[in-house]
Specification:
Length: 346
């Protein structure tokens, strides 16, 4: 049985904030508490309110501000001698690094966060940090390496009755199954995640689960209208909570759904919109995925073959540099689908 979802990253004086609080509200409250803590020399409180500030900036796509905030939180935690708070700051920094496509740095920071969390006796930050490591591997396409860790973390979350973490793990495992073609299993897992998130009032987790369901409904069932309806429901939540990254991925998925339906002009417009959103938040993975969809849509709309080949060649190199194995394979499939030259993916 799961209780109501909570946000463990909102700490100290900010524990009254809800997991569903608007990120702009979190940023305002966190900044006010941070300034008050700094004025009075309360380093531990500065570290914990600074964590909320860092996470709000990150989720709003304000990368530079997020980077400065998590580092300041870590310094304050170190001055306070608070090992668990240091771990939380490193978790935030590692999550930001993954969002920026800096996967080696993400792994280093998240591993350190997990170790400090264990040393500081904070089982939650340890679990979140291990989850971050699992997600980093999954995003890079190293499914075999992280599938067992996902399952382990799911079991731990279920045992503790922690709804939000259970939802995250279910969605991660579902995405692995989706990417390896096990659509029925993926659908069942996304569906369970959506149900748990709804009961626990985890609106962010619910929005991501709806996006996953929309993807399966589109690719497996060809049900374009239902997929679009699910994405519209998720978008309402993203806007209400100012979830910039989730909203950009929602728009990118809407482009996928429209592309599969042969509605290439609409797909192109959605990919262009998503690309602008990802660029605004300096998210290279999202940019690469939106560029791929955009290239395919433009090709279907009559773009010169040589231009498409050149763009896919450059995109393949970008994905190799970032280290996104699964996305790199998507470029190869696009080359095959569009019947372009093999040099595109070399």
């Amino acid at each position: 049985m799961y209780g109501k979802a909570f946000a463990p990253e909102y700490q100290g004086a900010l524990t009254t904030l809800s997991v569903n609080s608007s990120l702009t509200d979190v940023l305002t409250a966190g900044t006010e508490e941070l300034r008050a803590a700094e004025r009075t020399g309360r380093h531990g409180e500065a570290a914990r309110s600074g964590l909320a500030v860092a996470e709000a900036h990150r989720r709003l796509g304000q990368i530079g501000e997020a980077d400065r905030a998590w580092k300041a939180s870590y310094r304050a935690a170190r001055r306070a001698g608070d090992t668990a708070a240091m771990a939380w700051a490193l978790w935030s920094g590692g999550t930001l690094a993954r969002q920026r496509g800096e996967f080696a740095l993400a792994r280093r920071l998240l591993q350190l966060a997990a170790e400090l969390g264990e040393r500081g006796g904070d089982v939650v930050v340890r679990g979140y940090s291990l989850a971050g490591l699992a997600e980093t591997g999954r995003i890079q396409g190293d499914y075999e390496a992280v599938a067992r860790l996902h399952e382990q973390l799911l079991a731990e979350a279920r045992r503790r009755g922690e709804a939000r973490h259970t939802v995250w793990a279910l969605e991660g495992i579902a995405q692995i199954h989706r990417n390896t073609g096990s659509y029925d299993t993926a659908y069942a897992l996304f569906e369970e995640a959506a149900e748990i998130a709804a009961r626990a009032d985890d609106r962010r987790g619910h929005a991501w689960a709806l996006r996953g369901l929309a993807d399966i409904v589109s690719v497996r069932d060809g049900d374009t209208e239902r997929a679009l309806a699910l994405l519209s429901e998720a978008e309402t939540t993203c806007r209400a909570m100012s979830l910039s990254s989730a909203l950009a991925y929602n728009h990118k998925m809407r482009g996928n759904v429209l592309y599969r339906a042969g509605r290439y002009t609409e797909a192109r417009d959605l990919y262009e919109r998503a690309l602008d959103e990802f660029r605004a938040m300096s998210e290279p993975r999202g940019q690469a995925l939106a560029r791929l969809g955009l290239a395919k849509s433009r090709a279907r709309l009559g773009r010169d073959r040589a231009e498409t080949e050149a763009e896919l060649t450059e995109l393949a190199r970008t994905l190799d540099r970032i280290g996104l194995k699964h996305a790199r394979e998507m470029v190869a499939r696009a080359q095959e689908e569009l019947e372009l030259g093999a040099e595109v993916v070399r």
